Amino acid sequence: MKHDKLYLAIDQGGHATRAIVFNALGGVVEEFAVPISTSRPEPDQVEHNAEEMADSVTKAVEGVMGLIGSRADDIVAAGFATQRSSVAFWDAATGRPLAPIASWQDRRDAETLTQIAGAHEEMITTTTGLRISPHYGANKLRWFLKHNSAVAEAARAGTLRCGPMASYLLACAISGCPALADPANASRTLLWDLHRKDWSPELLALFGISQEILPRSVPSRYDYGFIKTGEREIPVTVCTGDQSAAIFAPGALDLDAAYVNIGTGAFIQKPTTVARSSASPLLQSVVWQDNTKELRVLEGTINGAASALVEYIEPLVPDWSQHLDTWLETIRNPPLFMNGVSGLAAPYWVHNFPSSFVSQGSQEPDTPQQAVAIAESIVFLLLENMKVLEELGEQVQRIVITGGLANSDALCHRLADLSGCEVYRPQYTEATARGLCYLLRSADSVDTADSASAAETDEAQWRDAMEKPQQFSPTEDPKLLERYGRWKTELHKRIGISGVAARTP
């Protein structure tokens, strides 16, 4: 029976690689996590050890298979969900890494990116659905090809493969070292044509990157190969990005909902049925592609979410996450935070925007007050992105929120109060992995469902298996609304824009 089937989700996140075995209704059977390290060798450079990263996948899979025991035979498919925008460099034949992985947080040589791409902004936005940003892979790939001797030598020898980190992890984990790139991860290189579903010759020429060194573009659902673990060979049938997977955790996409995930960064995604030539100043992404359909979202990104709290608060209060909700509930007059951590992203796109606190009085705010200011700045930026969605004709009727900071009731209440929408917080953890399980299960259903009614039954069973989400209803909070207004005025003043222009820089 289908409900006896198990699915292996490999979730590579900012702090750890997790291998989680789910049943067909999205219930966690076993899980195993392996931590990863992050280094910052120079300002704006954020790296991972590539060999350690590949080993973390192997160890996580071996760990969970050890826990699952004899039920390993029930695993019918595996999939990967990874950090988007991170890029890797490896040997085409062996998968051996040639350089560190440049994290999505890496913003090296941003000035050169502006020089190269600045005159081509409209073409880049129309082709990729993205904005020019050093967080995306193109400039990192160009930099390593120019400045890393091992990468440059392999390129000359014809043995180099580089591109999304997901492609590197697939090459290391799957027999034969295939070089393949799914839409969600390929698009975050800033080299992928959203409309042609392949690498853009124009953008490759602009950045001086040969298509021969990049992985082959394939759909999200694809026969990627097999992971061998012990005596088992498990087919890998899905690869996607972390945020692209997370929105599927509740099941099929709700076209009237905005999906918010607040982790290291924050993301707001709104499913859309419109294939726009441009969604500026938001992003347009393919979150799923198979042989029968394509699903797109409009997306806003906020770089400084938990990462901002880690930067400003953690050095002084290491266990800040245990206190954040209490601070949000008790501090009534916090300062404002101009949030430029890792660059001010959607919908303003000012990569060198300086962060600072703005106090009402002369007294310096204490650490708890600063934590509240940072948390509120995340909510304020989410609201700015929602306003743009409305301007683009995408009305949001409800919000589904996940991620580590979503565990704060007070933060969810603030989002409901300012947006005027019901905010739903699902009662599950590991949204990315659970969404990946749903996609694995759905891909499996394409081959096994006997009829449309059977598929509908499967969808209903998936939803019914979830606990009822916690709901936050909007209320009036005049002081919060007043702080939002002051924050917005101050932000616009610092950027040097006003009115409608504030959202279309």
What would a concise description of this structure say?
The chain is built from 16 helices and 23 strands. It has 505 residues and is of the alpha+beta class.
Describe the protein's architecture and organization:
It is a single chain. The protein has 505 residues and is of the alpha+beta class. The protein folds into 2 domains: 2-243, ATPase, nucleotide binding domain (Nucleotidyltransferase, domain 5, 2-Layer Sandwich); 302-425 and 475-503, Up-down Bundle (Methane Monooxygenase Hydroxylase, Chain G, domain 1), CATH 1.20.58. It is built from 16 helices and 23 strands. The protein has helices at 50-68, 110-117, 121-128, 137-147, 149-157, 165-173, 183-186, 201-207, 242-246, 306-312, 324-330, 367-391, 409-419, 431-448, 452-464, 478-495, and strands at 6-12, 16-23, 28-35, 47-48, 75-82, 87-91, 101-102, 160-164, 180-181, 192-193, 198-199, 216-217, 221-229, 232-241, 257-262, 266-272, 283-289, 294-302, 336-338, 356-358, 398-402, 422-425, 470-472. The strands form 7 sheets. A 7-stranded mixed sheet has the order 17-18-16-15-21-22-23. A 6-stranded mixed sheet has the order 3-2-1-5-14-13, sandwiched between helices. A two-stranded antiparallel sheet has the order 4-7. A hairpin with a 4-residue loop joins strand 10 (192-193) and strand 11 (198-199). The protein is globular, with a radius of gyration of 22 Å. The relative contact order is 0.12.
